[in-house]
Amino acid sequence: MQINIKDTEEIKTQGDVLILPLFESTGAGPFGDINEALGGLPLALIKKGDFKAQHKETMLLFTYGKIAASAVLLAGLGPRDKATPETIRQAGGAAASYLKNTRLANAALSTRTFDGLDATPADFIQGMLLAQYRFGVYKKEEDKKGLESLAVLSRKEKELAAPVKKAEIIADAVGFTRNLINTPANDMTPAALAEAAKSIGAGVSVQVIEKDEAIKLGMGAFIAVSKGSMEPPKFIILEYKGGMDKKPVVLIGKSITFDSGGISIKPSEGMEKMKYDMAGGGAVLGVFKAISDMKLPLHVIGILPATENLPGGTATRPGDIARTISGKTIEIINTDAEGRLVLADALGYAKKYEPAAVIDIATLTGACDIALGGEAVALMGNDDSLIARIQDASRKTGERTWHMPLFDEYKDYIKSDVADLKNSGGRSGSLVTAGYFLKEFANGLSWAHLDIASTAWTDKDRPYSPKGATGIGVRLLIEFLAAGVK
Q: Of 87, 284, 358, 380, which residue has the fewest beta carbons closer than 10 angstroms?
């Protein structure tokens, strides 16, 4: 969607639809001139209660030539005193979701309503852009409906240009990530994920550690997960310097391109979704795309341990023991607890960079869905300052996190009789024991863990996340990184 900022009166703006955001209980708000031109119809509908401007409410009115635009879309923002950047993003998503299913291709957005708010028109626009996403690559006839252009009507072009451009870059990065995750595993193999990393370009260097080298480096846990697959594993490393020589922030993304559970095989129902088990890696790639496009002065390392987890004659068995790059051994109780195995070697490898901080993002546990549903990311870590900074970024982006404990007692849950650790402590506390397992390999690091297992995929349309991959984590991590730019 092409976006232009124009200093043009709403009533004179031509196009298919003029979007008028409105708060509850404010009547026609700042749009008295448009209400009058339309013969008082918008205000009459509001007074009658047919349109209440409730949050995410929409109503389309055709203008029949009374103003230059062919139609007006009333977009409800809810109560003004409860408006936040996130509620405004959601309202923008609701407006775009409505228009996505029409033939109204060229829109204009009035920005009068946002005067005096902490939220900006860029928040509404970001919601629109995120909601516009479609994954139609595999359809013979892709639906061509949806917005093609958006004119942002404002006299503050210089003030709006940068935040609107940022909204475009971030939405593009989220779309890039969603495409990777939505792509089926027969096409999104570890090798294809490595090629996707190389496609980012613009100052991002990529190194791929192949299977033989990974074995030489002692990545026994990573290799153990890959043994049942014919697809060669790829340990993918990205680096973006952005002119900075400071200690890097390392982002680790779980990148299981398909997870059957291995020999501890999953139930067949829903297994087709297990292509999204590389959502953490996809999010890291989206972050690299965005920080590269924004040219942020950062030093960031990305690590994607990419493999499939399949059963087979050579697959790792329950009871096998793997030796990690750190030297610690792991008794594999459940081959479906594979994400923590690849992350263990990724955390061990990250230490070579002497990083300022390490954040891993992973679809790690089904228990995350039981604990938090699809409403928040489980956040754990060993550094309260790092946790607080992530929480601050979470509040700003609306990608909600919930801090879970890592009590020392959880170590007893993953004690093994025959190895240093076991990879599963059973059902009790399984969300946090998975996090504690990772903590054992983050020793000496400022580290945080984001479990996105219940938020990386949605089975229903959300305000700015259509069904399928959500791309969660991209906006959160960009905000976290950008906050560190001085």
A: 87
Residues in a beta bridge with 306? 234, 255
User: Quick one: average pLDDT of 439-449?
Assistant: 98
Phi, psi of 198 (to 5 degrees): -70, -25
- Picking from 168, 137, 180, 130, the residue whose alpha carbon sits closest to that of residue 286 is 180
Q: How far apart are CA 73 and CA 375, in angstroms?
A: 29
Q: Is the pLDDT of residue 143 over 80?
A: no
Domain ranges in the chain with CATH number 3.40.630.10: 175-483
The answer to whether residue 254 is catalytic is: no
For 392, the token pair is: 């601050």
Task: Give CA torsion, residues 138, 140, 141, 146, to 10 deg.
Answer: 10
Q: Which CATH superfamily is domain 175-483 in?
A: Zn peptidases (3.40.630.10)
Q: Tokens standing for 245? A: 């020589």
Beta bridge partners of 421: 330
Place of tokens 């995350």: 368
Q: Which comes out higher in pLDDT, residue 353 or 246?
A: 353
> What is the length of the chain?
486
Buried b (16+ CB within 10 A) or exposed e, 29-64: bbbeebbebbeeebbebbeeeebbbebbbbbebebe
The first and second tokens of residue 160, run together, are 């709006």
Cβ-Cβ contacts under 8 Å for 455 (sequence gap 6 or more): 374, 375, 376, 377, 399, 470, 472
- CATH 3.40.220.10 domain span(s) along the chain: 2-154
Query: Which one from 198, 266, 395, 411 is the annotated catalytic residue?
Result: 266
Give pTM, 2 decimals. Answer: 0.97
145 is catalytic: no
Q: State the catalytic residue, choosing from 340, 422, 439, 475.
A: 340
Model confidence pLDDT, tens digit, residues 79-121: 999 999 999 999 999 999 999 989 999 999 999 999 889 899 9
CATH number of 2-154: 3.40.220.10
Q: Find how far residue 453's CA is from the centre of its chain.
A: 12
The amino acid sitting at 279 is: A
Q: Judge contact between 170 and 478, C-beta under 8 A.
A: yes
- The most distant pair of C-alpha atoms in the chain lies apart, rounded to whole Å, by 81
Helices and strands in the chain: count of H runs, count of E runs: 14, 20
**Radius of gyration from C-alpha coordinates of the chain:** 24
